[in-house]
């Protein structure tokens, strides 16, 4: 698909901030899809801005769709949220490759989960002047309460 066509067709939150078709862009889109699946909400502009502060506070239960029938947010769901955020980072060079994504999602070791949780992305910035934290997340994705028709029919 030509770059101009990809740009003109983007009216949702799946297109990467760099707006160029690439492997890194595909990883970004996959991350947004993971976050959308876990939260049960559609992606619009700003999704990561909604999820990341909840991750800083370790409030995974507020991210996960309330229709999920788990007493406590399981490690698998937490892992999907963290991997989704890694994939949906604004800077393309910071995103994992798809093979790394598959490895993270498939690995069940507590050691690997601990490594994932210790990623600097998931640490609350010390101040608003922190260079890794951007107040203006233009191109980041937003979440809406809107559910698709298929989800509503199943309720």
Care to describe what's here?
The chain is built from 7 helices and 2 strands. It has helices at residues 3-9, 23-39, 47-56, 75-87, 98-106, 110-117, 149-154, and strands at 43-44, 142-143. The longest helix has 17 residues, at 23-39. It has a single domain (3-122, 135-154), classed as Transferase(Phosphotransferase) domain 1 (Transferase(Phosphotransferase), domain 1), CATH 1.10.510. It starts with a helix and ends with a helix. One of its GO terms (molecular function) is ATP binding. InterPro entries: CR_Ser/Thr_kinase, Kinase-like_dom_sf, Ser-Thr/Tyr_kinase_cat_dom.
SSE blueprint and pairings:
Blueprint: H1 3-9, H2 23-39, E1 43-44, H3 47-56, H4 75-87, H5 98-106, H6 110-117, E2 142-143, H7 149-154
Region (Disordered): 122-155
Pfam families: PK_Tyr_Ser-Thr
InterPro entries: CR_Ser/Thr_kinase, Kinase-like_dom_sf, Ser-Thr/Tyr_kinase_cat_dom
Keywords:
155 residues, mainly alpha, Transferase(Phosphotransferase), domain 1, 7 helices, disordered N terminus, disordered C terminus, ATP binding, protein kinase activity, Serine-threonine/tyrosine-protein kinase catalytic domain-containing protein, kinase
The H/E string reads HHEHHHHEH
By helix and strand content, what is the structural category? mainly alpha
Rounded to the nearest angstrom, the distance between the terminal CA atoms is: 37 Å
* Poorly predicted runs: 1-11, 129-155
Count of helical regions = 7
Oligomer: single chain
What value does the Rg take, in angstroms?
Answer: 16 Å
What CATH calls the topology is Transferase(Phosphotransferase), domain 1
Number of strands: 2
Shape: globular
Biased composition (Basic and acidic residues): 144-155
Protein name: Serine-threonine/tyrosine-protein kinase catalytic domain-containing protein
Pfam family, one: PK_Tyr_Ser-Thr
Keywords: ATP-binding, Kinase, Nucleotide-binding, Transferase
């Amino acid at each position: 698909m030509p770059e101009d066509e990809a740009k003109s067709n983007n009216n949702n939150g799946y297109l990467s901030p760099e707006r160029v078709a690439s492997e890194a862009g595909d990883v970004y889109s996959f991350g947004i899809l993971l976050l959308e699946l876990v939260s049960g909400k559609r992606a619009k502009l700003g999704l990561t801005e909604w999820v990341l502060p909840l991750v800083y506070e370790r409030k995974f239960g507020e991210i996960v769709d309330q229709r999920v029938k788990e007493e406590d947010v399981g490690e698998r769901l937490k892992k999907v949220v963290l991997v989704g955020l890694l994939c949906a980072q604004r800077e393309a060079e910071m995103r994992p490759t798809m093979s790394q994504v598959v490895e993270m999602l498939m690995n069940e070791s507590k050691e690997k989960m601990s490594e994932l949780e210790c990623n600097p992305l998931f640490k609350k910035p010390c101040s608003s002047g922190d260079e890794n934290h951007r107040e203006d997340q233009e191109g980041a994705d937003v979440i809406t309460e809107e559910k698709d028709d298929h989800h509503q029919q199943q309720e």
